[in-house]
Structure formats: C-alpha cells, structure tokens
Amino acid sequence: MASKANRTGKIAIIGCGGYQVALYDKDPGQIQKGLVAIQTKLQQYEADGCLRGDLSASDQFQLIQSYETLAECVQDAIYVQECVTEDLALKKSVFEEADRHVTHDVVMASSTANIFPTVLAENLQHKSRVIVAHPLNPPYFVPLIELVPSKWTDVSAMERARSLFQNLGQAPIVLKKEIRGFVICRIQHAVTAECFKLLRDDVIEAGDLDQVMPQGLGMRYAFIGQLETNYLNANGIKDFCERYSKDIYTLQESFGPPIALEGELIDKVQEQMEKAIPLDKLEERRKWRDDRLSALARLKIQLE
Predict the structure, then answer these.
(1) 189 neighbors 197 (Cβ within 8 angstroms)
(2) Residue of 99, 143, 154, 284 with fewest CB within 10 Å of its CB?
(3) In this protein, which residues make up the domain named 3-hydroxyacyl-CoA dehydrogenase C-terminal (predicted)?
C-alpha cells in the first residue's frame, strides 16, 4: 500500500484523510476482494454514522486505486506500508523491490509486530527511511500505532510518519529504539502470560478472568494509561512508589518463569472459551466487538 503525494493524509484510514491510496498484491484476486471489502466497510461506516474524515464513503473509495506492479504502486509515493505475512524473507524481498522504485524522501514502513526494522533495512539504498508502523486491530476504531526506528532511521522519517498518522486521526507513539516485541506486544503478552498462569494454577475460571479488563481495569485504561493511573492513585509517582514499591516487587518475585502455551492447559482454555463463544459464532462476535469499539471511539470524541 502506498500513499501518493496529492492530498485532497493505510487503506480506509489514509483514504479518510484525503490521501490518494495505491494498492498492490502479487495476486490480483486478493486486490479485487480487498476493494470490495473496503467499499462495503466504508458504506457500512457511513450508514452507521462512524465514517471518519470529511469525505463521503464514495469519495473516499475513489481515492483508492490498484496497480499491476509494485513499481507502479510506489512511484512518487510519500509513504509506503508493507502488510504481508510475518515472513522475514518475504518482507525483505518486498522492501528490496520497493527500494528500487521509491523517491529519496519516502517513508517505508512495515506493519510487523516483531521484526526489527534494522533487519528489514540492512541491504536497502533508502535504509534511513525505513521504520516499523505497527497498528492494533481494527485500526479504524483503535487508533494507536507504534513507530519504531532502525539504527539508521533519519529523524525526519519518524517525524513525517508521526505527522501523517496524526493528520489521519490515529494516535502514534514513538519508540526511541528497537526492543523485542516493541511496546504493544511486550505489555499485551505480559498480561496474556499471567492470565494463562492463573488458569494453569486453577486460581480462576476463564469466564471470570475475562471480566477483569472490560468490567475493571479496562474501564479506566480506555481514558488514562498505567502511569497516570498510578499517579492519580497517590499524590504523584514518588508517593505511589513509597507506598507500593515493596508490594509490587514482592509480587513480581512470585510471577515465576515464562509459561509455554501448549498441552492440556490450552485444551482446557479452548474448551472454556468455546462454551462462551462457539467457533461458528466468531465472526458474529468480531462484529459485536467492532461495533462496541466504534461506539467507544465516538464517545471518547464527544467527551474530549
């Protein structure tokens, strides 16, 4: 996917900002399926009153064009987003081909959740323009996107990417350097690991465990982060640490080694989850999730 230079600001996201969007896939059939899905979603969002941007669904869709070659797709683009599967060799081949056809001031980003941009950029001419731009799904309703530089990334590339996503109404966060899992996955997987440990140790059932976020912690996390939560729960961070640092340290000591997500534990969790949400109801539940996220996004805008 590439954003062309003319601004009339990722697929529906960039389209809603008024930027021309160029799509390419080696399988033309995938492009056609994608265009149909995009048009359907835009029309649905417009009907539901949650379409982003100032343009109509029809006008936004008109900004999206497919191309038969990657060279045509990225020509004169100001921003290129690679969204192939988490296959290092495949990602590197896409970057290497795009690198031969982009302009010197382009930003080339990967949606990867765990591959360092330094690894992707090492053989490229435009390595100073390569970053990771890792979104959360569905990005239309979950605006956070983490931007990660390689060891060669120029500051101007990070600034351009951050400005672009801010203009689109996303919420970019900028990492200072590469770290395994970046930030989103480090926090998310830490929570996941602890959840599975609690289930392994028969502390709680899956249904009750899955109430902790939506009925508890997640209520405040929808509006404030962990550090501000701590800050407000005491008279500042220093006071919070004076009160709770020993308890937090002692609790960390009980976390134990990493847990392998395999074997009987996974069968047990799968069984409990299927009782709540049968596999043939997953698509229905995903729509329910997206509808709630859409409503929450609109509420947050109203409250600001």
Answers:
(1) no
(2) 284
(3) 181-230
The C-alpha angle 82, 8, 77, rounded to 5 degrees, equals: 30
Q: DSSP state, 224?
A: S
CA 113/CA 187 separation, integer angstroms? 13
Q: What pLDDT band is residue 2 in, cutting at 50, 70 and 90?
A: low
H or E stretch covering 108: strand 107-110
Q: CA separation (Å) from 288 to 46, 87, 108, 293?
A: 17, 31, 34, 9
What is the C-alpha to C-alpha distance for residues 112 and 119, in angstroms, rounded to an integer? 12
Report d(CA 9, CA 15) in Å as an integer: 7
Q: Taking the CB of residue 44, how many other CB atoms lie within 10 A of it?
A: 14
- Amino acid in position 72: E
Give yes or no for a contact between 117 and 148, defined as CB atoms under 8 angstroms apart. Answer: yes
In this structure, are residues 168 and 138 in contact, taking their beta carbons and an 8 Å threshold?
A: no
What predicted TM-score, i.e. pTM, was given to this entire model? 0.91
Mean predicted lDDT score pLDDT of the chain: 93
Q: Write the pLDDT tens digit of every residue in 194-222.
A: 999 999 999 999 999 999 999 999 999 99
DSSP-assigned letter for residue 217: I
Structure-token pair, residue 131? 């970053």
DSSP string, 90-106: HHHHHHHHHHTTS-TT-
- Longest distance between any two alpha carbons in the chain, whole Å: 62
- State residue 68's pLDDT score: 94
Q: What is the mean pLDDT of residues 76-83?
A: 95
β-strand 171-174 against 77-82: which pairing, if any? Answer: unpaired
User: Which residue, chain included where needed, has tokens 């591959």?
Assistant: 115
